[in-house]
Amino acid sequence: ALSDADERRGLLVRAERGAPLSMQCHHFDFDDFDVHSDGQSRPAPRVRHGALLKERQLTTLCVDGAHAGVGGIDSWGSLPLPQHQLSFERPIEWSFELCPFGTDCVPTEMSPTPLSSQREGAAPQL
Fold this sequence. Notes:
With about 130 residues, this protein is mainly β. It contains no helices and seven strands.
């Protein structure tokens, strides 16, 4: 759940029981991380180290349907090891709900959201 300082307003992120759910939230815009939506790094990063990022007056929420590992065996220049890569031999389905605090948000039958890849090794595109 995300909430303001006095916990009167917020957002609950929920998935079906037993379903994987991975997410992150932070006070940065996605563009602050110097990565295009296709997963390719920009040629000239604006910020080289996370400690240099400046917090913004916003909260960004990223909900992951699948995670392909973080790479890092050669300073982030290569794909994750094969055992940590996603396989697109069959569709990956996932679902979640966003429910604002203070509402009568009742569970619904969640419809799966398929992920697909445009090219081998590409980041999944919704």
